[in-house]
Amino acid sequence: MSALTNCLEATRLISKSQHQKLTLLDGLALNAHLVLCKYCKSFQKDLTYVKVKLSEIDQEEIYLMNESYKKELAKKVLEELEK
Ligand SMILES: [Zn+2]
């Protein structure tokens, strides 16, 4: 039996794994827990889903920023040409 049998510890590791790479020991302990515990497994799934959704929003914002930057640049080029 793994040392990690505590759901609180497991959810802490799941959250941590979203921001940084877990140590080998933590990763193994977490995976062992996830095999046994469907609640933590679904928590991990939800958290991953939220993370993916957030990264999609960020990318969209970056894309929009780039679009307006491109338009601004095009406007400046046109202004230069009209001089
Ligand atoms: Zn659990």
Describe the oligomeric state of these chains in a short phrase: single chain
**Helix content estimate:** over 70%
What composes the largest sheet? none
Record field, number of beta strands: 0
Class by alpha and beta content: mainly alpha
Overall average pLDDT: 84
What keywords describe this structure?
83 residues; mainly alpha; 3 helices; rod-shaped; binds zinc ion
Task: Please describe what this structure looks like.
With 83 residues, this protein is mostly helical. It has one domain (7-82). The chain is 86% helix and 0% strand. The protein has three helices and no strands. Helix 1 packs across helix 2 (24-36) and helix 2 (24-36) packs across helix 3 (38-82). The protein is rod-shaped and about 70 Å long. The protein starts with 6 loop residues before the first helix and ends with a helix. The structure holds zinc ion. The site of zinc ion has 6 residues, from helix 1 and helix 3.
Question: Briefly, what is this?
Answer:
The protein is mainly α and 83 residues long. The chain has helices at residues 7-19, 24-36, 38-82.
Topology overview:
Blueprint: H1 7-19, H2 24-36, H3 38-82
Bound molecules: zinc ion (ZN).
